[in-house]
Amino acid sequence: MSKDVLENSELDMGEEVDTVKRRLGKIRTGKASPALLDGVMVEYYGSPTPLKQLATVSAPEARQLTVKPFDRSSIGAIEKAIQSGNLGLNPSNDGMMIRIQIPELTEERRREFSKLAREIGEDGKVAVRRVRQDANDQLKKELKDGDITEDEQHAERDEIQKLTDRFCAEIDEIVKAKEAEIMEI
After folding, report:
1. Could you list the residue range(s) of the whole structural domain that residue 140 is in?
2. What is the pTM of this model?
3. Alpha helices in the chain (DSSP H)
4. 35-39, 119-123, 130-134, 168-172: least confident range
């Protein structure tokens, strides 16, 4: 039974690391990345729809994104959604596709994004620790129910702590790499 707790904890911690990666992918660096537009919702036939369901987003150059809608009639709505997305991006529409030039980041803006990356990393580590706490609570319950012995509980808690340390270190590495990417000119 307690092996299930360990396996579930590892899966949940892995999901938290993936969440951190996804959130960091949305932070703008100096380079164009299709992930910048992942959070953009387009008003399409009266309902908010994710941009990636309406168009193909690509980065043909280091500082340019292109958005090619599947349905040309939605190009105006897509352009409006990108402008109102608080991304600091200014799309231009040529009737067939939308081109977005990615401006250079100022030093101050780079520092803000770097700070945001650290905050996202810290949130991820808190989530990993929450998974550890839930697992430890589950082990206490199993001990109380008589499903495991105290020695087994201590051994499992040690394993869960090792998992926690591993995933927190992985998050630190991911954040460190993102900070380096942000600060790169």
Report:
1. 2-25+106-183
2. 0.73
3. 2-25, 75-83, 107-145, 150-183
4. 35-39
Per-residue pLDDT tens digits for 53-98? 889 888 888 888 899 999 888 888 888 888 887 677 788 888 888 9
Q: Are 101 and 30 in contact (CB under 8 A)?
A: no
Cα separation, 23 vs 114, in Å, equals: 13
Is residue 97 located within the same domain as residue 110?
Answer: no
Of the three residues 101, 123, 148, the one that is the final residue of a domain is 101
**C-alpha distances out from residue 162 to 54, 84, 134, 145, 176, Å:** 43, 44, 15, 25, 21
Residues 74 and 128 in one domain: no
Task: Name the amino acid, one letter, at 161.
Answer: Q
